Structure formats: C-alpha cells, structure tokens
Amino acid sequence: MYATKTALALILVCMLPGCSPAASGRSVSDDRSAAQTPRDATYLIDGKEYALRDGQATVAMVPGAASNTVIQIFGEPANGDLDNDGLADAAVLLVETTGGSGTFYHVTAALNHAGAFVGTRAVFIGDRIAPRLLTVRHGVVILDYADRRPRQAMATPPSLQLSKYLTVRNANLEELFLADGEVIAAGEVVIGHEVRSFTPCGADDAAWLVGDSPALPAMQLAYHRVMSDAPPYTPLFMVLAGQPLGQPADGFGADYPAGFRVSQLVHILANRSCVNLEQPSE
Known about the structure:
Strand content: 35-45%
C-alpha cells in the first residue's frame, strides 16, 4: 500500500476483474501440479512441496529414517472465490505432525483454474491450537481458533479466542495484519467531487473516508480506473481493512455520522453489491 505510483499501478492492475497472475508475467501454477480436488492438490510448507492424496501426505523426514512428516487436511475446505475470477476456490486448514510433541496448523488455498486446483504456499497459524471455524467471505479467508495466552505452558488448554484473516495476492495466500481496533468490512465506495464515502454492508448510513487513510490513494486510483466509463457517484464494491471512527468534526466529513480510516484495500469486486453478491461457479 506504500508502493510508488508506478508500482502501485501494477499492483492494482491485478486487482481488477479479469486479471490473472499469468497476465502479469507470473505462472499461475507456480510450478506446482494441478489436481481435480483440493484434497489432492500440492501445497508448500516452509518451502517444501507436499502432494496430498485424498487429503494426506506422508514424507520421511530423512531418507531411511523411521520418523515421518505427516500432512493432513483438518475438517472440510471452505469454498469461495479467492482470486476474483468467478470460480469457486477453496481455503484449506492443514495439520503437520513430525513424530514429536508439536502439532502445527497452517492455512493454505487451492485455486481453481478451469477445474484444476493449484495449491499455494501455506501460512503458519500455531502449534497445538484449537481450530473453531474456517470460512470465506468476500474473498477473505477467516480462521477462528483458540490459542494459549502469552507465556502459558503448552499443557494449558487453549482458551484465548483469536481470528486470522488471509487473502490471495499474486497467486499466493497472505495474512492480513490488523492493528488494534481495525476490522475488515465490505461495502460500497463512492469517490467524487466533495464525496468520499463508504457504506458497509448492513449499515444504515455511509461513513466518510478520512483524509489520512493510508490506503486512500490506492482506493482513489482504483475507483477512477474501474469507474472511468460509469456515471459520476456510481458505487464500487470494495473490501477494506480499517478502523471505524466517530463523526468527523469539520469539512465535508462533518455531514456524515461516522468516519472510516482505511489501512488496506483488500479487494475490488466490480459488478457486485451488498444485495447482489455474485456466487462463484462450481
């Protein structure tokens, strides 16, 4: 979000509808073979490939050794369009055991390329956590889980409720880091003369996009690029990370009941709205 204008423009190209990693010069498969289902895809953990068969892979830690690394899918994959191509991808929770005391959890994705699933690099979540729910909403992967509090012994049952948010960028899964008080919200953005509003889905009123929002330049560039042929003040559906604020004290924002400070532009989902969310194809 803090790239130069040139680099930022390149980033935004692949956030627009119809863009694919292949179009930007990157291999969509990243040299990993495709599979018919997420349970048979190949995933990367710490730089090592694991080719699953029916949801599991077993690899010797050292050739000839008795100890193995076992990778298994935990629960059911969560389906949703993660790369904005209209196809149903899958978020997958993997469990890694190595014969020791640790049980390591990773979130990864299986991207659907015309019916062939390509696994991404995995994002480490924690050791011996207690997963609760894996979902996909507006292209964002959400894992709700319980972990131990800082400095608690591993023998202590996990009780601290946490959530991880992840998104696909450049054909791989990345964690979205939120500051205290920040949320991820989807809704309609309007940018124009004396207007800079965001109406989250489910909200009664629009919020003013405050001027010191770190992601505001990227949002403005994206809005004007995507809506160049649309009538003025046409809403554009975006997924944003940021902090809800109280009513702005002055300027045009004073006409709005609340403000919103955007730290990250997560997704642009053109041709969608809060009341008309397109469902990805199976």
